[in-house]
Amino acid sequence: MARPLAVSVLALLMVACVGTREPEPCNDEPVLRLGVGAERPELMVEIADSHAERQRGLMGRASLGADRGMVFLFDGPTDGGFWMKDTLIPLSIAFWAEDRRIVAILDMQPCREEPCEIYRPGVTYVGAVEANVGYFEEHDVEVGDPVELIEVACA
To answer: In DSSP terms, which residues pair with 57 in a beta bridge?
Structure first.
């Protein structure tokens, strides 16, 4: 009699386990949505919002994923430039103003020895995003397009 009970309990446990799945891992990386239209490109981004993080940027990185980037956030409008000292990969950078619209897009080349070129947008901005060189052109992102930073919080 104990054997049929054990088989029944085992069968119930198997059914219960089949219905139980591991929860999907939460991807809490911020996303920067760019441009206009139904299929706006999105970059998974790291955020550099302190002076030290903005200074370090993507220095020393040998590669950057195809849909990855780094966002630089400032406390207020600025017109400062970016340089590529010790940056190993060519990058494109898009700058946006307080109205969250892109005001300039530049391509930047690595620099291993000073003097390094300073890349200036020629306008004031409050944020910028670096991605692989050509990313904005490949995705039809242009000056005047909106940007939307989406910060996801996993429960």
So the answer is: none
- Which uninterrupted H or E stretch holds 7? helix 2-18
Place of tokens 């406390």: 75
Q: What is the pTM of this model?
A: 0.80
Helices and strands (DSSP H and E) totals, the chain = 3, 9
Q: Which domains does the chain have, with CATH numbers?
A: 26-150 (2.60.120.1140)
Q: How confident is the prediction along the chain (155 residues), in pLDDT tens digits per residue?
A: 455 544 444 444 444 444 444 545 556 789 999 988 778 999 999 999 999 999 999 999 999 999 999 999 999 999 999 999 999 999 999 999 999 999 999 999 999 899 999 999 999 999 999 999 999 999 999 999 999 999 876 65
